[in-house]
Amino acid sequence: MTSKLASLNQWVESVAQLTQADAVHWCDGSDAENTGLVERMLSNGDLLRLNEQTHPNCYLHRSSPSDVARVEHLTFVCTQDPADAGPNNNWMAPDEAHAAMDALYKGCMRGRTMYVIPYCMGPIDSPLSRCGVEITDSPYVVANMRLMTRMGADALARIEREGAFVKGLHSIGELDPNRRFIMHFPEELAIQSYGSGYGGNALLGKKCHALRIASYQARQEGWLAEHMLIVGIENPQGETHYIAAAFPSACGKTNLAMLIPPEGYRRDGWKVWTVGDDICWMRPGQDGRLYAINPEAGYFGVAPGTSEKTNANAMAMLNRDAIFTNVGVTADNQPWWEGMTTGEPAKDWQGRPYDKAVSPAAHPNARFTVSAKQCPSYTDQAEAPQGVPISAIVFGGRRASLVPLVLEARDWTHGVLVGASMASETTAAATGAVGVVRRDSMAMKPFAGYNFGDYFAHWLSFDKEGAKLPKIFQVNWFRKDAAGKFMWPGFGDNMRVLEWMLKRVTGQAHAIETPVGNLPLPADINTDGLELDASTLEQLLAVDRAGWKAEMESIAEYLDEYGDRTPSALKAERAKIAAQLA
Ligand code: GTP
Ligand code: SPV
Ligand code: MN
């Protein structure tokens, strides 16, 4: 098979030449194709079949132990001018990057099949969607892309119609951490990845295309590509408001997107609808509101910590047609990870007999891949071509201290400052130290495809005549007490905070004004059925003026890192708050 699009055929041909692939397989996305790939992976050990009674069509993949997370230090944005990539990215000159990658790709697919994956990010008939083609030598990547994107014949037809697509080239190479690069060429709408088979390094539609390349395009075209979940909250009157929330990797997006409200809320008729759990593309509609689509079609979620107690919706979608990566297994071959309330592990994620003293059963960044349609809180609004209107934008991170449970920004400019100055403790989603607080603007530190100074200016530019922008909030589910215990119960109980936010949106809830934003009083948060002592809630909603003064100094230094690309409106907003705190 070839395509009707000459430019696509030529590119596929040139890659086949360079890599010396044995065969070229154009993916149509059919069930038969998937069955064939699964058979192939079962026979070569790429996949292991899980318990067919409890988990039909579920498979385990054990990745190379040195290839278990994104590699931010090996991820580059290659623009002509280094200033366009900005201090927030690693940069390499495009010519130099191409030379290095061509040398790696040369002959790298000898003895392997090269898969050509046409995919569409977003509903296939949405004007907000964008297409790409990923070439890969990993059948595991094909199987994951099939769950994570609209992949195959329909996407190819759209690509042929539009004549344009993002070019992604991926090879697992030797899986050698010393021969591994994730390169982005936003000016060429191209991605080149070598040496990793894992998640965001290898499923190029996800972070590489839908965030790094898309954020660059979004700036040129007047929209936003964000690291955000999209969730619909339906109140007892039957009105649904959609919230988009940016939390850094492994900081709670999947969990908030699939939240099950506390019992009292469910009794009163509150419902939660999941549109997306990781990426959100937003654009102003005719009425001035922001409309959002989830460009993905599936979930690549963190397994550890997922349980009947924390995320029953996720557990319910994981008992069929799912791929598990780097989890442990029970004696009867069911997937198992830390936090699970039933079963016990027999083997760890590397296939060794489980020994708590040696390793956790699941790698801390173990993941599941599953179609979004299997989630009990799935809504067909996830297929709406025009997207869903966003009522509130939420920024949040892991902050053991200082940042209160919730605060509301006074206006858009203040909200952009709140997002830009966000910080969070690093997690196992990327290689490197875990638990180190770093600035992670809009949860996009590893994902913005251009200079953060320009990105902040782009965010500010949405505040214009006729715009009906969402309110912006900041949350922190991760405050710890002196003993190191989380102070807020989190998970389903986060509904209590969402309710306050939505009542602020509709003008039904009270707030007090402080220099850092508008906060609820403890009495404004519904605590019915919650065991939380009054003093804890008070501490969660307190504003530590001395702490915030120091934070504002640190934010000033951070904004200065982007030099004259940092919008002066953002610096002025910060200075105003600092003055009020003084
Ligand atoms: P990525 O897929 O890496 O982008 O992560 P994510 O932002 O979707 O994070 P996810 O929802 O998968 O949560 C990551 C970890 O944080 C899991 O172990 C969760 O159990 C835990 N977590 C999520 N929400 C909460 C919460 O409200 N409170 C606490 N204490 N932990 C939470
Ligand atoms: C993240 O790290 O934010 C993820 C997982 O969502 S990955 O696909 O590896 O980027
Ligand atoms: Mn993510």
TrEMBL record:
Residues 10-219 form the Phosphoenolpyruvate carboxykinase GTP-utilising N-terminal domain. GO terms for biological process: cellular response to glucose stimulus; gluconeogenesis; glycerol biosynthetic process from pyruvate; oxaloacetate metabolic process; propionate catabolic process; response to lipid; response to starvation. Its main location: cytoplasm. Transmembrane segments: none annotated. GTP binds at A250, C251, G252, K253, T254, N255, R367, R398, F491, G492, D493, N494. Pathway: Carbohydrate biosynthesis; gluconeogenesis. Binds 1 Mn(2+) ion per subunit. Mn(2+) binds at K207, H227, D278. It is found in: Cytoplasm. It catalyses: oxaloacetate + GTP = phosphoenolpyruvate + GDP + CO2. Substrate binds at R70, Y198, G199, G200, S249, N365, A366, R367. GO terms for cellular component: cytosol. Monomer. HAMAP family: PEPCK_GTP (MF_00452). Belongs to the phosphoenolpyruvate carboxykinase [GTP] family. NCBIfam families: PRK04210.1. This is Phosphoenolpyruvate carboxykinase [GTP]. It comes from Arenimonas donghaensis DSM 18148 = HO3-R19. The lineage of its organism: Bacteria, Pseudomonadati, Pseudomonadota, Gammaproteobacteria, Lysobacterales.
